[in-house]
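User: I'm writing a tutorial on reading structure tokens. Could you give me a worked example: one chain, its sequence, then its tokens, then a sentence or two explaining what the tokens reveal?
Assistant: Sure. Here is the example chain.
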Amino acid sequence: MRFARALVAFIALPGVVAIAVPLFWLESSGHWRIEHSSGLIPLAGGLLGLLWCVRDFYATGKGTLAPWSPPLHLVVAGLYRYTRNPMYVSVTLMLLGWALAFGEPALWVYAAGVALAFHLRVVFGEEPWLARAHGDAWQEYVRRVPRWFR
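And here are its predicted structure tokens:
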């Protein structure tokens, strides 16, 4: 059952934001020609990072990336050793990869808007909740690991 919840969460959240919306945009614009193949590097890197984080949430945290089924344990391993929000970084990297690869201006705007929304969600939603849920362990983690990157 937990695997099904994790799969649904992946499809519903980053699957829509980082894959379905950019594909819809490209389909709507009819712009399927890769302009800069170098954009495939951040796109692939972001996808790998996202999958790594989802695995860590599932295996280490015993939960999913979804707010309705969060990890039971604070995840501080894997990419979470370098940034407190590697999943958001990975999705943003994917969006920048789409925008660069296809040279679609709307995707640059979309990536910037999503990045801003992530920041606001982290600062005003997730961090206060994590502080309440994990107390001293969260405070120690905040002291060691930056929100985004140093």
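What the tokens reveal: The longest helix spans residues 105-144. The radius of gyration is 16 Å.
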